């Protein structure tokens, strides 16, 4: 199995876990916080998708689905269009309110773009430097594995929170 096939499988697993984890939840359930500063399921779903969208676009050298396909306007959040949620304050987290269908739609569009980008990469492309701000510089492979790990971690958090809120 190639590295691209392994990455594709990993991102498919994110989809297979995320969509059922948010399906059928109300806006209120998605915004519920188990503690005063805890991240709610809706914010986690939005954030993992924003990070995936931002970082995959960076690997591909393309615009993000968020802005290119009008998702920023559909969400109409009081945040900068470049915001991906990293370092959000508790008030910024609370400002990310969206329904399950909107979150799932944005994720599906981002997932489709991710698969498209992966299908266009060859094994040699994974060694390409995509971010020189780090030491050592970040390759496409490292960036994609990092995104995948972040997504899987957040989808696990969503599943846990759903279990707390509505049961297994």
Question: Any key phrases for this structure?
Answer:
3% strand, two-stranded antiparallel sheet, mainly alpha, single chain, 168 residues
Instruction: Give the radius of gyration.
Output: 16 Å
Largest sheet: 2 strands, antiparallel
Number of E strands: 2
What percent of residues adopt helix (DSSP H or I)? 55-70%
Query: Could you tell me the mean pLDDT?
Result: 97
Q: Could you spell the SSE succession in H and E letters?
A: HHHHHHHEEH
Q: Indicate the proportion of strand residues.
A: under 5%
Distance between the termini: 34 Å
Give the overall form: globular
Global structural class: mainly alpha
Indicate the low-confidence ranges by residue numbers. Answer: none
Number of helices: 8
Report what the structure shows:
- With 168 residues, the protein is an all-alpha fold.
- The chain is 64% helix and 3% strand.
- The chain has eight helices and two strands, in the order αααααααββα.
- A two-stranded antiparallel sheet has the order 1-2.
- Helix 1 runs antiparallel to helix 7 (100-119) and helix 1 (3-22) runs parallel beside helix 8 (140-166).
- The longest helix has 27 residues, at 140-166.
- The mean pLDDT is 97.
Task: Give the gist of this structure.
By secondary structure, the protein is mainly α.
Secondary-structure map:
Blueprint: H1 3-22, H2 27-31, H3 41-60, H4 65-68, H5 71-75, H6 90-95, H7 100-119, E1 129-131, E2 138-139, H8 140-166
Antiparallel strand pairs: 1-2
Helix pairs in contact: 1-7, 1-8, 3-7, 3-8
């Amino acid at each position: 199995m190639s590295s691209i096939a392994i990455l594709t499988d990993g991102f498919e697993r994110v989809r297979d876990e995320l969509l059922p984890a948010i399906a059928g939840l109300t806006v209120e359930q998605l915004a519920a916080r188990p503690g005063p500063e805890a991240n709610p399921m809706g914010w986690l779903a939005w954030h993992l998708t924003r990070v995936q969208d931002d970082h995959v676009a960076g690997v591909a050298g393309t615009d993000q689905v968020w802005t290119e396909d009008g998702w920023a306007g559909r969400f109409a959040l009081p945040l900068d269009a470049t915001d991906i949620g990293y370092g959000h304050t508790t008030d910024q987290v609370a400002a990310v309110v969206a329904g399950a269908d909107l979150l799932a739609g944005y994720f599906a569009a981002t997932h489709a773009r991710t698969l498209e980008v992966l299908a266009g990469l060859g094994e040699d492309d994974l060694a390409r430097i995509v971010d020189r701000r780090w030491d050592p510089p970040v390759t496409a492979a490292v960036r994609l594995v990092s995104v995948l790990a972040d997504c899987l971690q957040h989808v696990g958090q969503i599943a846990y929170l759903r279990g707390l809120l509505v049961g297994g």
